[in-house]
Amino acid sequence: MSCEKGDGDPMEDPLFILESGEVYRNPTEVKMSQIVMPCHANHCGELSVGQLLKWMDSTACLSAERHAGSPCITASVDDIHFEHTIGVGQVVNIKAKVNRAFTSSMEVGITVNCEDLFSSCQWNVCNAFATFVARRTEEGKVQLKQVIPRTQTEQMEYSIAAERRRMRLTHAEIITDLLSSNTAQLGECQEYQGAVSAERTRVESVELVLPPHANHQVSTFGGQIMAWMENVATIAACRLCNAHPTLRTIDMFHFRGPSHIGDRLVLKAIVNNAFKHSMEVGVCAEAYQGAGALRHINSAFMTFEVLDKDRKPRTLPRIRPEPVDGKRRYQEAIARKKIRLDRKYIISCKQTEVPLSVPWDISNQMYLSYNNVSALKIMAARSNWMLSSEKNKVSLYTLEENQILCFKVETHVTVPAEQAFHLLSDLRRRHEWDRHYQKCDVIIQADEDDTIYRVATPCVSKGGKGQDFILLASRRKPCDSRDPYLIALRSVTLPTHPATEDYTRGEVLCAGFSIWEESNAVTKISYYNQATPGVLPYISNDIAGLSSSFYGTFHSCNKYLEENRDSLAVLPPSDL
User: Fold this and answer.
1) CB-based burial of residue 519 (10 Å sphere; 0-12 exposed, 13-18 middle, 19+ buried)?
2) Alpha carbons 285 and 297: distance in angstroms, whole number
3) 211-222: buried (b, 16+ CB within 10 Å) or exposed (e) per residue?
4) Which compartment or compartments is the protein found in (predicted)?
5) In sequence order, what DSSP letters do the residues of 316-340 get, joined into one string?
6) How far apart are CA 242 and CA 465, in angstroms?
7) I need a labelling partner for 127 at 20 to 30 A (CA). Which of 165, 510, 521, 566 fits?
8) Which letter does DSSP use for residue 195 in this model?
């Protein structure tokens, strides 16, 4: 664990000086600092994750209510990866702010860091995104006011929040489909000598919801439910390994319904599967009152490790599943592990750490699409673009960071934004205006918004070979009037389309279009391109030659759009 010394108080007011000279602080930001006492810790002297989840949920709820001006409830929490444990005597600093508000729900970003008061060291513990819903008032359903981003970071989070919301809304359905397809390929469960019966790890516990467990709306506090779930999951993990486990990840989960004071909350947990260094525990929370029927409140999957004295993951005993449901859970845990690794590999790492070409398959389609669009939104949100040159109302901007050169070409056309979006999103027609696209074929129509193309470009030197690219094109319509149309491009690899001798295989890290409607007839089009020199077909060390190439290409683009402004929209991708 690296120690990063702060420049001062880690929770001091994050004031920003805007270009106007105005001193600014996010109005939805809420902070909580807690010193970890023995009553908050487990027998290893580490902060209970359940207690941390309660603090995180409480801080996020206060931020949501500050923005909504009305009571809010936790609807869902995205994946949480815990990077470090927190010891007794250390300080937990939690910061929450609303990234974006939709009709009646909002995304709240949560950051947690730990501070050692004696060494002044600080380190990140986890980041999380929670969705809160504003409760109805006496006047009816709440209509949330818009979040207005004021800084580059806020603009980036605001923009990506729409993509995270899109992924949340389809997450359950997609995961079900992936589990169904992946488990069908796994065959029979493996038998291991000395394996532990899964039934030995089963835990069931009941909690009576009392007033101290409720929030100010007399509903069971979401953080309290999460803490109880973490408790039974930890017991199940302990029964497998006969040691104290460390919680590493909690998969995305949704609250299915409310719980109230007087409910009996039944919590069940079992180890679904154990791998070499980790185990998955499934947890379920159900509620009832009196002789009433059980109501499903929540389900979650938690991944634990057991650390040795050197803080390295220990080898775990294997699980022997029980017939029928036990075998289903065992196989689904294997499929979820693959999905989890794909998600962490593609989404969790920094953009500069993502390899140029990630292998595409149906199990990682959702995460590659998310990464593709998010990378473009992050590039577009940067505020330090430098105007390199301008000619005939086409502007070229450059930006260099971490030895990566980025370009932005900006122009205006008198074509409706939606029509420009349809015309530009069909790469099969790009050769009509871009001479660098010699040929473009559809390889896979993944879904309505994602298509994989093979693009061939001409040779740029005498006697040389042309380049070809395998590109994932992800297109997005605006979530609301504050969003642009987007067409994001990045390289992927397909085993069915390896590199050939006739072409040099090229790579695209991030490229695409941002299309803004400025009026009914005027549209601003920004094209972004991020690459190391020599990677994209028209990257050149000669900036003057590069400018000339971009100007020629985008004058042709403008002409193409103007000529087709009244034509029928291209066929939707589903009909390709």
Assistant:
1) exposed
2) 5
3) eebbbeeebbbb
4) Cytoplasm; Mitochondrion matrix
5) ---EEPPTTHHHHHHHHHHHHHHHH
6) 61
7) 510
8) P
Q: Which of 41-55, 229-243, 342-356 has the lowest mean pLDDT?
A: 342-356
Task: Specify which residues 93 forms β-bridges with.
Answer: 33, 113
d(CA 370, CA 343): 10
Residue 197 CB-density burial (10 A; 0-12 exposed, 13-18 middle, 19+ buried)? middle
* Helix H or strand E encompassing 269: strand 264-274
Name the helix (H) or strand (E) containing 555. Answer: helix 543-563
Under DSSP, the state recorded for 189 is P
170 φ, ψ (degrees, to nearest 5): -105, 0
**Cβ-Cβ contacts under 8 Å for 450 (sequence gap 6 or more):** 365, 369, 472, 473, 474, 475
Q: What is the pLDDT of residues 88-131, one digit of tens each?
A: 999 999 999 999 999 899 999 999 999 999 998 999 999 999 99
pLDDT tens-place string over residues 377-400 = 999 999 889 998 888 889 999 998
Q: Find tokens 């909504």 and name the residue.
A: 68
Q: Which two tokens stand for residue 295?
A: 């109501």
Q: Which two tokens stand for residue 496?
A: 């069915």
- Rounded distance between C-alpha atoms, residue 201 and residue 286, angstroms: 19
- Per cent of the chain over pLDDT 70 is 86
**CA pair distance 52, 4, nearest whole angstrom:** 22
Q: Are 556 and 409 in contact (CB under 8 A)?
A: no
Burial class of residue 570, CB neighbours in 10 A (0-12, 13-18, 19+) = middle
First to last CA, the chain: 50
